[in-house]
Every structure is written in C-alpha cells, then in structure tokens.
Amino acid sequence: MASVWQKSLMYLGLVDGEQLDDVQPPRHMAPTDRRNEPANTDQQSEQGLPGRRVEPPLPSARRPDGPLRSNSAMKPVTRTQSRCDVVEVFEFDDAKLLADRIRDRTPVLLNLREADPEMVRRVIDFSTGLTYALDGSMRKTADGVILVLPPRVSLGREEELRLSELGLFDVE
C-alpha cells in the first residue's frame, strides 16, 4: 500500500505510477515499519529521490563586488522630463488624441477654455479614467487648463516657464 508521501509525489507529478513502489520517504519522516528500510540511506540522500523530474534551483552567483547577478529583464525606473503637447479641446474626438499621446509617453496640456461645460465634464471624466488606467497623473495648471502626465514623466522647469509664457501654466 502506498504511503501518503508516495501518493503526494504521484499527485504532484514528481514520480510516475511505476516508480511509486521504488520511492522511499525522506529520512526526516519516520517510517512506520523500519524492517523494510534499506541499509544505505546516505547514498540515497546524495543522489536525491529516484524518479525525480525537477532539480532544485542553483544558488545565485555573486559578483566579486558583491551584488547578485540577475538574468531578469527588470531595470531601474527613472523619471524623465519631457516637452509637453498642447491640445485645445473643441469636441470629444480630441480625447482620442489625448489617449494616443499619453500612450506614447508624451505629456499633454488640455486647454479647455473654449469648450462648452458639458464637453469639459466629458473630457475630464475621460482623462481621469485614462490616467487611472495607465497609472498617470493629472493636475490643474491654470484656469481651464489641465496637465495630464504619463507614468514616471514630469515637466522640467524650462518647460513650465515656456508654458507660463503662453499663459497656460501658473508658475509658483
């Protein structure tokens, strides 16, 4: 009869059904009957379990200077400063232009001064959902003007001064 340990190994797919009779429980688990235990358990523990399909991961290699080497594609994220596009909103189709620019990681300044109040509400609702979905941010920069930023992008001081000269950014 197969033990719980052997059934677990078979369930997890670590051994085949034919190999189930050959697998012994690990040494840290006390077998119920020691009469059938093989005499040379050290050789078995060095070689691992018979029928094992998955090898344990190798320890990470350290560089001589200390940090771990990684095969990961992760890189540190830095904030970039970018030039801003100004979009004057007259109809709701301008919201598609906003989404395309934010997806391309370009900051957008929405000039809503000439739009009717219903259009302003719709565009603000759209840009709020867009910035939430893409993890961006938005803020009011002047009366009737909204700045929409993609994630990890900010405006430089020079860009803020340029927009201030256009009357679209209140510099503090």
CATH-level-4 superfamily name of the largest domain: SepF-like protein
Q: What would the CATH topology of the largest domain be?
A: Translation Initiation Factor IF3
Number of domains: 2
Measured as a percent range, the helix fraction is: 25-40%
Keywords:
single chain, 172 residues, alpha/beta, 2 domains, four-stranded mixed β-sheet, 5 helices
Structure description:
It is a single chain. With 172 residues, the protein is α/β, with parallel strands linked by helices. The protein has two domains: 4-47, no CATH class; 80-165, 2-Layer Sandwich (Translation Initiation Factor IF3), CATH 3.30.110. It contains five helices and six strands; from the N terminus they run ααββαβαβββα. It has helices at 4-11, 41-47, 94-103, 117-133, 157-165; strands at 80-81, 85-88, 108-111, 137-142, 145-149, 153-154. It has a four-stranded mixed sheet, with helices on one face. Strand 2, helix 3 and strand 3 (108-111) form a beta-alpha-beta unit. Helix 3 runs parallel beside helix 4 (117-133). The longest helix is centred in the last third of the chain and has 17 residues, at 117-133. The protein is elongated. It starts with a helix and ends in a 7-residue tail after the last helix. The model is unreliable at 41-46 (pLDDT under 50).
